[in-house]
What does this fold into?
Amino acid sequence: MIGISACLGGQCCRYDGRHQEVSALKKLLDQKEIVSVCPEVLGGLPVPRDPAEIVGGNGHDVWDGKAKVLTNQGEDVTELFKEGAKRAYQALKEQQVDHLILKDKSPSCGSQWIYDGTFSGTKIENIGVATAYFIKQGLSVQSETQWLAQQQGGN
Ligand code: SF4
It folds into this structure.
C-alpha cells in the first residue's frame, strides 16, 4: 500500500489552514487505492498553527537530540513533531504501507528539501522529522515532485 501526506490528498491540514492537493493523488485517495496521514495533526498540533522549522540540523538530528523544531514565535514543538511521526507510522503500519509520497519542504514530511531554520525562506537539501522516522523504520519515501516526474516519464 502507498501512503501520502494528507495535504497532498486535499486535506486542509497545513500550518496555514490550506491543502496542497495533487489531483492525481486525490483521485487515488478517493478510490481508496492509497491512504493518507498528517504527522503534525496526529501530534496534536492545531490547524492553523505557527510555521515551524528545524533549527540546528535535519530530521535525523532531531531524533538524536542534536536539533529542535521551533515555531517562528520561538516555541519548542519538537516533542509534538516526534509524537506525530510515531503515531503516523503506527497508522501507516496498520494499513500495511511500505512506500510514501511526501510533501516536500515541510519540517515533518520534507524528503528532498526543508527550510534552514532561519525563517528566511532559505531551503537546504535535507529531510524532515517524520521522514527521518519513516526511513528508520524501513519505509521508502519520495517527494510529490519526484512522483509527478515519474508519472510524466511513464506517459
Ligand atoms: S505534516 Fe505533512 S501532511 Fe501534515 S500538513 Fe505538513 S506536509 Fe502536509
In short: The two ends are 22 Å apart (CA to CA). The beta strands are 2-5, 34-37, 52-55, 68-71, 99-102, 113-115, 123-125, 140-143.
